[in-house]
Specification:
By secondary structure, the protein is mainly alpha-helical. The protein has 18 helices and four strands. The longest helix has about 35 residues. It comes from Halomonas heilongjiangensis.
């Protein structure tokens, strides 16, 4: 697969470099060496054996290509990895290598070790997004724009409120992901069928000590076919992806030429077309949405693998590996773009004012109808407000002016009241209060 051309551009490049085959081997080795150290501390491995193992195997060049080839016969990377490690050890230590563990212990724990730094990086990116969004909210608390429902103009809102919803979505998802990181991604250690066969009560002691040594979470029990940890992680990643995609979708729609209310941050060559020099495509939004859509697909794989048979998954476990790592890498790439997008977003209040007037003031027909209803009745009020809006649109005159000249309105309403009813800036409901409430919540972390 030409991954460098069609998959990797959506991912975080630093994260991609840190999650390669060698990194997986290093993580599996970290598990095995920590296991030997824990067992030595409890008398299950001869004194000094774990130090010799570490010195020998940290200097040994594992053959990643051979490990990859061995997966075809063993079904996972741990089996050929363990064989290589054992072959490299002195004869007297071979029996203590991988003692009491099974391949799922190695792979699951290694994946958790790889994902731990990714969660920290995702959190840092989301904090950047939060800070940029708070600045935008404060700057545009009173910037009036069109609120749109079903893709059509509805009623006025402020740009600050719109940003608040982006920020809340991202922050809620961040806190959900942070909770998992805080409790720690769980170590896996249960042996062949998850009951530490042959070790009796020492098994749980090994598991807990292994978690502490590796900096992973301590599960209640081994979770070979209890995939709640993976379900929780996969859905939390997907929640962040959904929030990032919402931001990108809204920004992309607002950048349309006919709207022009915002623009992505300018950069040399960014958004250019292969054939149309005049275009400035919302490429950051496209990259965010492209990554998010893939995360959504990966989440489906993880959800469908949640129920696994008996004491070891048959294909379900194997199906989790790539979607789990890819989701983190894709999401990190998406958030790198989202942070830059929010930090440099170009906001065009003049275009927002222009679009508010696009209907000739019709966007204010609802408050006008409410003003007219006590005087002419609700049906006539709706008709008059619509007629005046159409006249204003066609003639280019102000909505209030046309209303005040309408035969059924003239002399029956205070002209100043009509002007107030047609001013979008005076019909924002709780918008300003919402922005302040959102900022207060976002800064309470």
């Amino acid at each position: 697969m030409p991954a460098a051309l069609i998959q990797h551009p959506f991912m975080s490049q630093p994260a991609l470099a840190q999650c390669n085959a060698q990194a997986m081997v290093d993580a599996m080795l970290a598990f095995e060496l920590a296991l030997a150290e824990v067992q030595e501390a409890r008398g299950a491995v001869p004194e000094g054996a774990s130090r010799t193992m570490r010195a020998t195997l940290e200097a040994y060049a594992f053959d990643c290509d051979a490990i990859a080839a061995g997966i075809a016969s063993g079904g996972n990377a741990a089996i050929p990895f363990v064989k290589q490690g054992r072959a490299a050890l002195p004869e007297a230590l071979k029996r203590y290598w991988h003692q009491g563990a099974t391949s799922q212990d190695v792979v699951d724990s290694a994946l958790m070790l790889l994902l731990g730094p990714r969660l920290a990086s995702l959190d840092a990116l989301l904090v950047r997004c939060r800070a940029a969004a708070i600045d935008l909210m404060a700057a545009h608390e009173g910037t009036v724009m069109v609120g749109r429902t079903l893709m059509q103009q509805a009623l006025p809102i402020t740009f600050g409120v719109k940003v608040a919803h982006w920020a809340l979505g991202l922050e809620q998802a961040r806190r959900r992901l942070a909770a998992l990181a805080e409790t720690g991604l769980p170590v896996q250690f249960g042996g062949a069928v998850g009951v530490h066969s042959g070790w009796d009560d020492l098994g749980l002691d090994f598991m807990d000590a292994l978690a502490e040594r590796l900096g992973l979470g301590r599960p209640v029990l081994p979770w070979h076919t209890d995939r709640q940890p993976i379900h929780a992680l996969g859905t939390a990643l997907d929640a962040v992806a959904g929030a990032a995609e919402k931001l990108a979708l809204d920004v992309a729609l607002l950048t349309q030429t006919e709207l022009g209310e915002v623009a992505e941050p300018a950069a040399p060559g960014m958004g250019e077309s292969s054939s149309m020099p005049h275009k400035r495509n919302p490429v950051r939004c496209a990259l965010i949405r492209g990554a998010a859509r893939q995360v959504h697909g990966h989440a489906t794989v993880l959800l469908n693998a949640a129920a696994q048979p008996l004491e070891r998954g048959l294909g379900e476990w194997h199906a989790e590996w790539a979607p789990l790592i890819d989701s983190a890498l894709l999401l990190e790439g998406a958030l790198e773009q989202a942070a830059v997008l929010l930090e440099g977003l170009e906001v065009h209040p003049e275009a927002m004012r222009r679009n508010l007037a696009a209907t000739g003031g019709g966007i204010m027909a609802e408050p006008v109808s409410r003003l007219l209803a006590p005087v002419v009745g609700p049906d006539a009020a709706k008709r008059i407000s619509a007629e005046a809006a159409e006249t204003a649109r066609r003639s280019g005159r102000g909505y209030a002016e046309v209303l005040n000249e309408h035969a059924e309105v003239q002399g029956r309403l205070d002209p100043a009241a009509v002007h107030r009813a047609t001013d979008p800036a005076l019909y924002l409901g709780s918008g300003r209060a919402q922005v302040q409430r959102a900022i207060n919540w976002l800064t309470n972390f």
